[in-house]
Write a structure and sequence with these properties.
Number of strands: 11
Structural class: alpha+beta
Strand content: 5-15%
Radius of gyration: 27 Å
Number of helices: 20
Oligomer: single chain
Helix content: 40-55%
């Protein structure tokens, strides 16, 4: 306790007197420990501070200031490789010593300065294996994946297709004579494009592709686990053309790549088979269980849904950092005086020198910043709620997809606007890399378009809501029903709008309030 008091005293002494002055005025400041406990729990926050100290003292995980801005793509990738190895060592040690490994592993990744070339491996490839691979497949690959003996990526997005998963062109055709699958990207637009870690790092990938049987029947999108590089030479295997997509606006520590596949043969065991199997004699898909098959159809989107959830959850941290920087700057930066002070004069008629105001005292600054401060807390509680719904697995997959699609669009766009507003509110100093704000903006920007364009996602949520008017709009009339998206014609939507008017429904604000209490607590 004595040591903690000394550390707190040192921290307070290093704080600007102007910031401390504002804190002393706040009725909330004496209760920050309680607020921390409510948000994080004191145990996890204490552990966070301990891990942060260790990560910041690590020469590999915490490179010098401006390293990410002054380094070229090759230097950033080499650092990312070293950091990935170091991160794996950390996780291995945490697994042996931590009493709460999942919590510590999550805190550790939050503390890393940026994403690594193995981020997709740990956050998409391994989770997908755990949820979609058969027992035999998990036994074969999972241990090697955890130890980085093999490194995987998730290859879904194509040059010509992103959010429209059902439109993917990559084909996996079954050949009854050889009893093997033949994989091809039959056109330029079928080229796999953007998968993180594909450009240089990955040895394996989860491939999302159309499964076509020997009778040329298209069974839709399925997932396959394939090897793409030699484990000894690390060169692409025959039939694979793989490369890096080149420098990007940000995230250049990740080797986003492209891949074209020219008639590569793989065994039928490449089909990830937790829910389905492939009968080599009949050339047909065997569903292990009808209920499980429904789960499989929905779970093909689960990795994309989980990634969108992570974007929502992570957004509060980005905006939180930006608003903290902007408000602290606004507290110590003084500029301008009130007109009456400016014109004040002493008895001799000479103008008195008056101290300039903190820019935080100007209402215009407060209006811009305090709105985003409030939004930061809203995003925190939203993230906690959505994470809980996802982990409980009680919410229907379609409902979760519909809600997360819209939330991902709104949240990421609002956070982008918020970070930019914070930069502008700091004036010229906000444009300097030293402020930290340009880095936050660049780091967050891929979240706006990654895993779904905002306009496309909002339309997906709209279609979902229009198919369920009884639940979300207050309409209790079951005559208005939509069974599938093909029925969502302009005439049908007009009927819905007319029905709302005829029933004299509650105001939008009341409906939102009602549904917020019902579904979000």
């Amino acid at each position: 306790k004595k040591k903690a008091k000394m550390e707190n005293k040192t921290q307070l002494e290093s704080v600007s007197p102007l910031i401390q002055e504002e804190r002393n005025k706040s009725s909330l400041f004496p209760h920050t420990t309680l607020l921390t406990e409510k948000l994080f729990s004191l145990t996890s926050y204490s552990r966070y501070l301990q891990l942060r100290s260790e990560v910041e003292s690590d020469p590999i995980l915490s490179p010098p200031p401006y390293f990410f801005h002054n380094s070229n793509q090759e230097e950033l990738y080499l650092w990312s490789c070293k950091a990935s190895v170091r991160a794996t060592e950390w996780l291995s040690n945490l697994a042996k010593t931590s009493s709460n490994f999942l919590q510590d592993a999550g805190l550790f990744y939050v503390l890393l300065p940026t994403l690594l070339n193995t981020s997709v491996h740990f956050f998409m490839f391994i989770p997908f294996l755990m949820s979609h691979a058969s027992d035999q497949q998990r036994q074969k690959y999972l241990s090697d994946a955890m130890s980085l003996k093999i490194i995987g990526t998730y290859a879904q997005t194509e040059l010509g297709h992103g959010s429209n998963v059902q439109g993917l062109e990559t084909e996996v055709r079954y050949n009854r004579d050889t009893q093997k699958f033949t994989i091809s990207t039959p056109s330029l637009t079928a080229t796999k494009w953007w998968p993180g870690g594909l450009g240089k790092t990955s040895t394996h990938c989860v491939l999302m592709a159309r499964l076509i049987d020997s009778n040329n029947v298209d069974h839709g999108i399925h997932s396959f686990l394939i090897q793409i590089r030699d484990l000894e030479t690390h060169k692409p295997l025959p039939g694979f053309e793989i490369g890096d997509v080149g420098p990007k606006f940000g995230w250049n520590t990740i080797d986003n790549g492209y891949m074209r596949i020219n008639k590569v043969e793989v065994g039928v065991d490449a089909l990830l088979g937790k829910y389905i199997e492939f009968d080599t004699k009949t050339g047909a898909i065997v569903k292990k269980d009808k209920k499980q098959q429904k789960v499989n159809n929905a779970s093909l989107y689960s990795t994309m849904v989980m990634t969108r959830l992570n974007m929502i959850v992570g957004s509060y941290g980005i905006l939180g950092k930006a608003i903290t920087i902007a408000i602290r700057f606004s507290t110590i930066r003084k500029q301008g005086v009130l007109s009456e002070n400016f014109l004040a004069a002493d008895n001799n008629g000479e103008r008195l020198e008056k101290e300039e105001r903190k820019i935080l005292d100007w209402e215009s600054q407060q209006i811009h910043l305090f709105n985003y401060l409030s939004l930061t807390y809203c995003l925190w509680f939203l993230g906690v709620k959505m994470r809980r719904l996802y982990n409980e697995r009680k919410t229907p997959a379609g409902e979760l997809h519909g809600e997360l699609a819209g939330l991902k669009s709104i949240v990421t766009v609002e956070v982008q606007k918020g970070v930019e507003e914070c930069r502008v509110r700091c004036g010229g100093h906000g444009y300097s890399l030293a402020s930290g704000l340009p880095s936050l903006y660049v780091f967050h920007l891929p979240n706006v378009t990654g895993e779904g364009d905002p306009l496309v996602l909002v339309q997906q949520t709209l279609r979902y809501l229009l198919k369920r008017p009884n639940r979300y709009s207050g309409i209790e009339n079951k005559k208005w029903e939509v069974k599938n998206e093909s029925e969502l014609t302009p005439r049908k939507i007009e009927e819905f709008l007319n029905l709302r008017e005829a029933l004299k429904l509650k105001s939008v604000e009341e409906i939102v309030k009602k549904n917020s209490q019902k579904y979000w607590g």
